[in-house]
Design a protein that fits this description.
The chain is of the alpha/beta class. The protein contains six helices and eleven strands.
Length: about 325
């Protein structure tokens, strides 16, 4: 089963999917095919690490960020508070200090622009949603973060009547390995690499979207030193504290990769359930083919991929028979 939400107005460009593909007798969601931990076990780790959301956890680096239409962030904040939904509230500069603008005066004017975001966690899941805006009537309710949480590549904020996607964010243990993979396999270099609080590093890959959407959709990866990968802290800087729990980003990433190494031995081997925790990129420009990506993966001896032929939104197969 799949909980699926398409974003308006570009519903054919971006969607959020929460997948429960458990397999026959739940075999894909339970040990041994998931490793020693079941899906429910890892979801419980997220619940434990995030706690009541009152302090920042590096597990919040896993998030999908959405931009709220002008004047609506307070409505979300008030609704969450009224329903007892815990959120972590942050305010941060909308633009990086070294960003440039075509006009110097414009750059000076927007340099101090502040953005605000609410981070919420769906219990018993690995899903975090961050809703952002540049407007709120209660800025004092938001903890201060010194660095931007999103890269607005063109230095312009979204201006739509609908909620818009901004980025998919993932916590990682080795930022250099991620950048190298994107370069060698996807032939892309990061749009920006930013240093942040606590010696963290964020690598951003920006993708052009439709004219209707009007801004790039980003994929970002956040690295924090090992000492900052567990525990929770005030504000947006994760650090090790006396309230630290035992699971680090490094350990979790190694666990997922270990299961993949065991079962994904070739293109026709098993697709572990942890692979359902993924992002999908579509390149429908003329002359492009997924074959080039497969060739690059094969060239470096990477077996951690699967080719899929699927049906989507009523499309049928090449012979019109499915």
């Amino acid at each position: 089963s799949c909980g699926r939400t398409q974003m308006i107005p570009n519903s054919n460009k971006f969607g959020l999917h929460t997948v429960a593909a458990k397999g026959l007798n739940d075999c894909r969601a339970t040990s041994p095919l998931t490793g020693d931990l079941t899906v429910a076990d890892v979801e419980a780790i997220f619940d434990e690490e995030l706690g009541d959301m009152s302090v920042y956890s590096p597990f919040m680096d896993y998030n999908a960020m959405m931009w709220a239409p002008a004047g609506t962030l307070d409505s979300y904040r008030e609704a969450f508070d009224a329903d007892g939904v815990p959120t972590h509230k942050l305010q941060w500069p909308c633009f990086a200090a070294d960003s440039t603008s075509p006009a110097d005066e414009t750059a000076k004017a927007v340099e101090v622009a502040m953005c605000y975001s609410l981070i919420m966690h769906i219990p018993q899941s690995m899903v975090n949603i961050e809703i952002a805006s540049n407007e709120t009537s209660a800025p004092d309710d938001f903890s201060s973060e010194a660095f931007p949480r999103h890269e607005f590549v063109d230095r312009e904020l979204p201006q739509h009547d609908y909620m818009e996607p901004l980025h998919d964010s993932r916590a990682v243990d080795d930022i250099d390995a991620v950048i190298d993979f994107w370069d060698r396999v996807l032939d892309m270099k990061p749009t920006a690499v930013r240093e942040g609080a606590g010696s963290s590093v964020t690598a951003v890959f920006a993708f052009a979207s439709s004219d209707m959407m009007g801004h790039d959709a980003n994929v970002q990866y956040v690295y924090r030193p090992q000492s900052a990968q567990t525990g929770q802290s005030e504000g947006g800087t994760a650090q090790s504290t006396s309230t630290s729990t035992s699971t680090s980003i490094s350990w979790l990433q190694s666990y997922w990769n270990g299961v993949a190494d065991k079962y994904m031995t070739n293109a026709s081997s098993m697709w572990p359930v942890w692979g359902d925790n993924h992002l999908a990129l579509v390149d429908d420009s003329a002359g492009t083919s997924i074959d080039a990506v497969i060739e690059r993966l094969d060239a470096i001896g990477d077996t951690l991929y699967h080719p899929f032929l699927g049906i989507e939104n009523g499309y049928v197969g090449p012979d019109g028979d499915w």
